[in-house]
Structure formats: C-alpha cells, structure tokens
Amino acid sequence: MADETGADDALLAELRTVIDMDDPPPPALVEAIKNSLDWLDADHQIAELVSDSHLAGAAALRAAHEPRVLTFTADESTLVVEVVEPPAAAPPDGRRVIGQIVPPAPAGVDVRTADGVTTHVRADEHGRFRATGVSPGPVTISVRYDDASRPPFVTTWIS
Amino acid sequence: MADRSISELVRAACAGDEQAWHEIVDRHARLVWSIARSHRLDDADAGDVFQSTWLRLVENLHRLEQPDQLASWLVTTARRECLRLIKRRDREIPGADATQGEDRIDPTATPPDAAVVRQEEHAQVAAAYHRLPPRCQSLLRLCLADPPLPYAQIAEILEIPLGSIGPQRQRCLARLRQLLSSDDHTDIRAGDV
C-alpha cells in the first residue's frame, strides 16, 4: 500500500460526511435532550436509586410480564415506584406509574418523560399516587410535599 | 463568539446556562449516537441508549470529576447503557448477516441541482459502507468519531485487542475501496447484492 495515507485520508473524510448524512442522531431526541437541563430544580434533593427489580437477577422473560418495582431514597424520604407496562396489544400510551411515599404525606407529584411531557398527580394522605398514560422511554418523578418544611426531591431517571 | 472549553461549558451548564448545555449536546450528540450504533442497536434501542446516556449526564453534571474528559465519560456511559440494555432485553446482537442486505439509499431520490455529482459519490460510498461486514462498519465509524476516540477506547467498545485496531482499520478501508472500485460500472445504488 504505497499511497495509503493521502488517499485513505480522503476516503475517510468522505466516509465521515456520508455517515453524518446517512445516520445522524434523530433530531427529535437531540431536541428533547436539549430541554432536559432543568431536570434538577435548585431546591430539590436527588433521590438515588437503591433497588430495581429488573436488576435483581430476575430472568428477563419473567420480568417482562411483571411490574418493575424501584426504590429511591433522598435524605428524609423513600419512594417506591411501580412501573406497569401495558400489554403489547394496548395503545403505547397505556403505561402506569404507581408510587408510595414513605413516610406518607400528601404531595404534588410530577411524572416526567424524556420527551418533556409532565403528568401532574396528587399523592393522598397515605402517600400514594398513580399516573396513567405515561409515554414510553425514561421517566423521572419529582415530589413536593404540601408541608413545605419537608424538602422536595426528584428521582434519577428510570431508563 | 469565542469557543468555550468543555470545562467552561460544563461549569456554565451547571449554573443553568441553557446555551452552554445546547453546545455540549451539539458537540457530542453524534459521538453518543455512534457508540449506540457500534453495538448494532436498532433505531428504538439506539434511541433509548442515546437518551439515557444524556440523562445520566444531566444527573451527574455537577459532580463530574474531570469535566475536560467529558467525551470519554459519555463514551463509557453510553457503552454501559448499551450493555445494560442488551442484557435486559436478554437477546443476541444480530449476527453478521443481519445488516448485510440493508440499503438505506433511496434509488429513486432525485438530488437537487449542482450537488448531483457529489450526492452520487456520497451514495456510492454509503452503499459500499453498508455492504462492509458490520464489524468494519462499527470500527470505521468509531475511528471517525468526533471528538476523536483513543484507540484504547475503541478496542474496549469492540472488545478486540488494542494492537489490532490499526491493522483492522487498514483492512476495512481496503475492503471499502475494493467495493467502490469493483462496483464502478454496476448500479450499486439500485439495490443490494
């Protein structure tokens, strides 16, 4: 390969252009990501994931038919979330997110998906809430207690 | 507009500077997408990996230890997300033939005006690229990443020895050239072989 470098560089440059044109990151996803910086409100604590039934070594086949249960903790709160995927035949917007805040307290709850859509629901005095029609993809949940003395929190993204 | 360094952009984005965040995304979106594609994920799965990787960054933006190493952080995270997704779906990456017949070039598309010749060149290179073995497609794509990836990282992603990257790159490129020249007089855009 005597003439490799110069010719190769030219071909690689061409190939780079081709790949960029042929298979760019989907613009809708790029836009959604650009709008995701405000995920962390300054006054919200981050609730970290401490357990995920999908990572608990359950067989993938079984897990696919069972709700996914995740637990998050912030300083003074624990949140248990169940994500229930709709049956394959149902419309894709049939996903449900069911939650339990511990210790229980009434709160405003925002369920947000990566496309920027937020569903606002209420947690009752038992700390329970339910959101339906949650679109597919990553989800995050933020909780603001009616009792303003308890710090609000937001979960890391469930993906 | 003066170019801001990555660390400056990260710092600004942490402080809520949307513009800085957009620039971070614009500079690295193709890189993250390339990593997902290099694991041969389809559109939906690559989209999942793309989104989760960036959301992980939003979560960790204020605690990045080396903001100037952002590209490397993104690559590592995207790779982890790929492996997690592949494991979760409990299924195999499509085998070597799966993408062989793929032809995303539309033979009926009429390119506008003066760009015709250039478009045809592009179409030929694209068609040849898609006929490369998937390993070659991944390798070349990673070698062309922007910002550039160190060979060590490419080796890790593709799970091949570091020393074989250079030779494999040469072989893949030679194969691409061969596909291009052998098809000079045949209508490679009209379909797959």
Structure description:
Chain B: One of its GO terms (biological process) is DNA-templated transcription initiation. Chain B: Keywords: DNA-binding, Sigma factor, Transcription, Transcription regulation. Chain B: Belongs to the sigma-70 factor family. ECF subfamily. Chain B: InterPro entries: RNA_pol_sigma-70-like, RNA_pol_sigma-70_dom, RNA_pol_sigma70_r2, RNA_pol_sigma_r2, RNA_pol_sigma_r3/r4-like, WH-like_DNA-bd_sf. Chain B: GO terms for molecular function: DNA binding; sigma factor activity. The complex is a heterodimer of chains A (159) and B (193). With 159 residues, chain A is an alpha+beta fold. Chain A has 2 domains: 1-34; 41-155, Immunoglobulin-like (Sandwich). Chain A has 3 helices and 9 strands; from the N terminus they run H-H-E-H-E-E-E-E-E-E-E-E. Chain A has helices at residues 4-22, 27-34, 60-65; strands at 45-52, 68-73, 78-84, 95-102, 107-113, 118-123, 128-134, 139-145, 153-155. Chain A has a 9-stranded mixed β-sheet with strand order 6-5-8-9-1-2-3-4-7, with no helix packed on it. Chain B folds into 2 domains: 6-89, RNA polymerase sigma factor, region 2, helix turn helix motif (Rna Polymerase Sigma Factor, Chain: A); 113-190, Orthogonal Bundle (Arc Repressor Mutant, subunit A), CATH 1.10.10. Chain B has 8 helices and no strands. In chain B, helix 1 (6-14) packs across helix 2. Chain B starts with 5 loop residues before the first helix and ends in an 11-residue tail after the last helix. At the A-B interface, helix 1 and helix 2 of A face helix 2, helix 3, helix 4, helix 5 and helix 6 of B.
